[in-house]
Structure to design on (754 residues):
């Protein structure tokens, strides 16, 4: 029995933290995706984290990804860390151990930082990081398609978090010839990839929530009203204490979900859902409380808090929101939700 | 039965724990306690421990646990324990609460006082006090709160005055909210020995016999109608030097080690909430199937049931993480225990509220769920109110500035 990041994961996370601490200050994060920063992250192996060694990646798992994603959230890094990992998982299944073919080529490109990926698992939803992606993976039924960005029709879509660089991809519908069928019979792999995305997003939300909390504790210590800092008031303290409690109890659920994913345990689906429930709820609570404690200054774009608020508003719903995953846990635990007593007319 | 087959069966029944693997020895330990409990837990619930009859019945159960070596698994063998590791203790607790075994009438001694004794007690004190505590013969009662000192514990005024001639201390004052005080035997608590010293200084950790001259106990009926706690009046009660724990004047520091245990791991292990959450899931199924009378629309509470279960799981994982850290780095739990306390007490209150909702119009007729509900409502109050815990979290874990103290002293 052991629950906690291991030493290698801690070291890896520390190096990501150090890198982002230098390269991803709030003013950098504001500017959006940076190819230069992505290259630096590739230099320490981040995009190739889940790419098997035979394609030049690190061949690590969700445990390492969670440690890294938490750092990406903490720094509010607008780079597609989650997407790279999910793409690696999908392409690894599609490549099926072969050294040649499009899936293998993209795995190598991911690992050396030469390409960024966007992943469209839900047909209708806008796709994060599509605008600057070099290739996109699209799931339809149980098949996985891929296409170079140049061949895809990617339409930028506005969003609450500019750092997400959302786009709509409708090539598969409109011009099926441009999409390359990578593999069929990928139902299990797609479900697994969605779980990986949920775990990584959960970890990112923990880092984001903690960053907001730290900013807010500092602010509450500086801001004076009625002759003393607002951080001395219990009304403020208790709000922030609740945020810390929510974050600290979410973290071990994320660690467990990563562990279950890496060992393909029977509870992996439920554990991933649980992690996203706790992390989304913790981050939503953090966003509300931190905005409230900042007051009007927190309601401005210029305040750095806005970077994380926007990230959390988007990411707490992405990869399934808390309600979606809570319902999944309830179904698993209590049996399927029965039909409503009165069917809608 | 073939041993390997038996172990495998145990593993299958424990689908929830196999995702974070215990060692074979730990699983052995789990099977052993599970078997013993299955054979020994009383089929009918014991009467409330806060009645004279129930108190005795619970003491007898403690003795039965002790004779089988289960009363204090984490203690050293020479005091009646079996030197279990923290993980084994957590396993014991999971199995204990899962089996529906009686509440622990000796818990305030075993889980709150004993850890302090291990840290500060002399050999003589440990040899004298721990074995009868483990056997359930001496039930200990906490004497901290006073009418004027609740959340602000350091405002306590009960005094201990030095008696050089007799070699001890003379106690006077009033303690209150002392759980098991109505039928318990001995009290541990804080007394002011140096009124001139600062609030937190000049306190001494002392023990007193509730049958001694000058002690009178007034039981207080709680919301469930039973005298679960009591007021203790001390009128020139003599306590020998042998019953001072730690150094005179160091009582605050000595006591804080107990509050760490109380809020942290030992008072409320995850096992209790995991068991309650599993029962809640079962209750939902029974109400839905109509085998237990309840509300006609239990599905309204699907999310609440799932949440309660997930939070119990999250608490378990959090404790595993804490124990992992303790074992690897020897980190003191300290202020983090306030996170635990807020989390488990609110989880417990919400869990039992959900059970009441599922029972709907039948909830008010009483039974174990109503008892559990009333008990859970005390959680955010005892062992340091959750408001105090949130102050600790904000000030000691987040480093926020203390509130200026107004109008005192």
């Amino acid at each position: 029995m052991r629950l906690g990041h291991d030493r290698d994961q801690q070291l890896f996370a520390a190096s990501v933290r150090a890198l982002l601490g230098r390269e991803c200050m709030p003013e950098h994060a504001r500017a959006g995706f940076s190819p230069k920063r992505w290259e630096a992250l590739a230099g320490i192996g981040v995009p190739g984290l889940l790419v098997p060694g035979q394609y030049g990646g690190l061949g690590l798992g969700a445990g390492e990804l969670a440690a890294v994603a938490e750092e990406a959230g903490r720094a509010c890094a607008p780079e597609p860390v989650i997407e790279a990992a999910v793409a690696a998982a999908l392409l690894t299944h599609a490549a099926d151990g072969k050294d040649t073919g499009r899936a293998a080529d993209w795995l190598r490109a991911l690992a050396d930082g030469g390409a960024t990926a966007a992943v469209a698992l839900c047909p209708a939803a806008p796709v994060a990081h599509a605008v600057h992606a070099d290739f996109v993976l699209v799931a339809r039924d149980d098949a996985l398609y891929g296409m170079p960005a140049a061949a895809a029709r990617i339409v930028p879509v506005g969003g609450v978090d500019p750092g997400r660089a959302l786009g709509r991809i409708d090539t598969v519908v409109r011009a099926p010839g441009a999409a390359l069928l990578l593999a069929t019979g990928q139902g299990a792999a797609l479900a697994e990839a969605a779980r990986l995305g949920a775990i990584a997003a959960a970890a990112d939300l923990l880092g984001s929530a903690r960053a907001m909390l730290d900013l807010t504790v500092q602010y509450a210590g500086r801001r004076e009203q009625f002759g003393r800092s607002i951080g001395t008031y219990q009304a403020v303290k208790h709000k922030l204490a609740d945020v810390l409690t929510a974050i600290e109890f979410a973290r071990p659920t994320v660690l467990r979900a990563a562990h279950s994913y890496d060992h393909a345990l029977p509870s992996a689906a439920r554990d991933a859902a649980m992690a996203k429930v706790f992390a989304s709820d913790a981050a939503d609570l953090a966003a509300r409380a931190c905005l409230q404690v900042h007051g009007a200054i927190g309601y401005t774009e210029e305040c750095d808090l806005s970077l994380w608020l926007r990230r959390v508003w988007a990411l707490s719903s992405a990869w399934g929101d808390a309600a979606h995953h809570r319902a999944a846990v309830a179904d698993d635990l209590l049996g399927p939700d029965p039909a409503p007593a009165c069917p809608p007319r | 039965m073939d041993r390997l087959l038996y172990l495998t069966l145990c593993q299958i029944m424990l689908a929830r724990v196999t995702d974070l693997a215990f060692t074979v020895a730990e699983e052995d330990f789990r099977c052993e306690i599970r078997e013993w409990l299955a054979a020994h837990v009383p089929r009918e619930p014991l009467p409330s421990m806060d009645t004279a009859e129930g108190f005795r019945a619970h003491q007898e159960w403690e003795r039965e646990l002790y004779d089988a070596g289960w009363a204090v698994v984490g203690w050293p063998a020479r005091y009646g324990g079996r030197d279990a590791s923290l993980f084994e203790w957590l396993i014991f607790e999971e199995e204990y609460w899962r089996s529906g075994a009686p509440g622990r009438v000796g818990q305030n001694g075993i889980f709150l006082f004993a850890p302090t004794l291990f840290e500060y007690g002399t050999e003589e004190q440990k040899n004298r006090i721990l074995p009868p505590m483990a056997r359930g013969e001496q039930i200990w009662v906490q004497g901290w709160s006073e009418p004027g000192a609740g959340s602000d514990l350091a405002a306590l005024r009960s005094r201990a005055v030095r008696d050089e001639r007799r070699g001890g201390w003379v106690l006077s004052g009033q303690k209150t909210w002392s759980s098991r005080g109505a039928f318990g035997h001995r009290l541990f608590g804080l007394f002011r020995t140096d009124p001139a010293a600062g609030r937190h200084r000049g306190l001494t950790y002392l023990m007193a016999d509730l049958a001694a001259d000058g002690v009178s106990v007034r039981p207080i009926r709680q919301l469930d109608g039973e005298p679960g706690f009591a007021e203790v009046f001390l009128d020139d009660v003599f306590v020998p030097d042998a019953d001072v724990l730690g150094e005179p004047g160091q009582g605050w520091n000595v006591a804080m080690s107990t509050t760490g245990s109380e809020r942290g791991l030992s008072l409320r292990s995850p096992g209790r909430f995991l068991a309650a959450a599993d029962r809640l899931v079962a209750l939902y199924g029974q109400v839905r199937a109509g085998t237990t009378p309840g509300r006609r629309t239990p599905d309204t509470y699907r999310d609440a049931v799932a949440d309660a279960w997930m939070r119990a799981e999250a608490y378990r994982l959090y404790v595993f993480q804490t124990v992992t850290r303790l074992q690897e780095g020897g980190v003191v739990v300290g202020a983090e225990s306030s996170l635990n306390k807020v989390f488990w007490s609110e989880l417990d209150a919400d869990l039992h509220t959900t059970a009441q909702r599922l029972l709907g119009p039948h909830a008010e007729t009483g039974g174990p769920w109503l008892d559990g509900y009333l008990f859970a409502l005390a959680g955010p109050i005892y062992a340091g109110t959750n408001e105090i815990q949130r102050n600790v979290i904000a000030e000691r874990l987040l480093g926020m500035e203390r509130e200026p103290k107004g109008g005192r002293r």
Summary: The radius of gyration of chain A is 20 Å. DSSP finds twelve helices and eight strands in chain A. Chain A touches chain B through 49 residues (CB under 8 Å). Confidence is low (pLDDT under 50) at residues 340-345 of chain A.
